Automatic annotation (TrEMBL):
Every Indole-3-glycerol phosphate synthase domain range: 12-248
SUPFAM superfamilies with a match to the protein in the record: Ribulose-phoshate binding barrel
Gene that specifies this protein: trpC
Gene3D superfamilies referenced in this protein's UniProt entry, alphabetically: Aldolase class I
Native source species: Agromyces badenianii
Designated name of the protein: Indole-3-glycerol phosphate synthase
Family under the similarity heading: Belongs to the TrpC family.
Record's keyword annotation contains Transport: no
CDD domains assigned to the protein according to its UniProt record, in alphabetical order: IGPS
Keyword list, A-Z: Amino-acid biosynthesis, Aromatic amino acid biosynthesis, Decarboxylase, Lyase, Tryptophan biosynthesis
């Protein structure tokens, strides 16, 4: 069953009255310099890679960090060795915005992910217009034709789709797209429960050659070790980095795994 939060966010996206006409956002997206190569940045190496997230609050944890200057935090992440930056752009539950993404884009030379409940081509153009290099698609939130349409548009605009899954059948749907970057979110979006073992159970189902991203629930180095030993190439970390003091010091411990 589609989580209520996700269903509402998708319904919002579908019914939104846009502030700018599609043609304008499309033109702004096409006028941007080429997107950065996220596949290259996240290519598996001898150590785990980190996508570091700008996250102010969340439905499961409430307020996490005020983050008055997302660009400054992104620069710290870059200095600390992150391979990409995730920016939550959803406003109501996560306190994010496209303005955050634009600010981060200008501050760092790393690929930037638009992390949101993406359900329309408009949002994909908006992401590119704001400078995103990657766009998250949540398999559970989209039917196959929409998933395909949005996936193809992201690729056509030169960006990289990060395909988020939470179950075996969703990984099959991600594989059918030809996805090169696939995440398993440990967080059940209906109950918010965290299952750090889910990644390991689904890891054998990843298609050959896909980059494997473990999303959510990294609170300590032990969690990174756990994901890495289960086959993760990349971990996506929010809460631990925005609440854990010096992000550079935290990243250095994660990146040693
Ligand atoms: O974080 C939440 O509570 C949440 C609830 C419902 C949908 C999505 C949610 N979070 C988005 C994410 O996937 C995480 O921000 C990201 O994976 C980082 O997770 P964490 O390191 O556990 O903060």
């Amino acid at each position: 069953m589609l989580a209520e939060l996700t269903a509402n966010a998708v319904a919002d996206a579908l019914s939104r009255r846009e502030s700018a006409p599609l043609a304008e956002v499309e033109a702004a997206a096409l006028a941007r310099p080429a997107a950065l190569d996220a596949i290259e940045a996240l290519r598996p190496g001898s150590r785990v890679k980190v996508i570091a997230e700008i996250k102010r609050s969340s439905p499961s944890r409430g307020a996490l960090a005020s983050i008055e200057d997302p660009a400054a935090l992104a620069r710290r992440y870059e200095l600390g060795g992150a391979s990409a930056i995730s920016v939550l752009t959803e406003g109501r539950k996560f306190g994010g915005s496209l303005a955050d993404l634009e600010a981060v884009r200008q501050a760092v030379a790393l690929p930037v992910l638009r992390k949101d409940f993406i359900a329309t081509p408009y949002q994909v153009f908006e992401a590119r217009a704001a400078g995103a290099d990657l766009v998250l698609l949540i398999v559970a939130a989209l039917d196959d034709p929409t998933l395909r349409e949005l996936y193809d548009l992201i690729v056509e605009l030169g960006m990289t789709p990060l395909i988020e899954t939470h179950a075996a059948d969703e990984l099959e749907r991600a594989a059918a797209l030809g996805a090169r970057l696939i995440g398993v979110n440990a967080r059940d979006l209906s109950t918010f429960e965290l299952d750090r073992d889910l990644f390991g159970r689904l890891a054998p189902l990843f298609p050959e050659g896909a980059i494997r991203v473990a999303e959510s629930a990294v609170l300590s180095v032990a969690d990174v070790v756990h994901y890495r030993s289960s086959g993760a190439d990349v971990v996506l970390v929010g809460e631990a980095l925005v609440t854990g003091g010096d992000p550079i010091a935290n990243l250095s411990t994660f990146l040693a795994v």
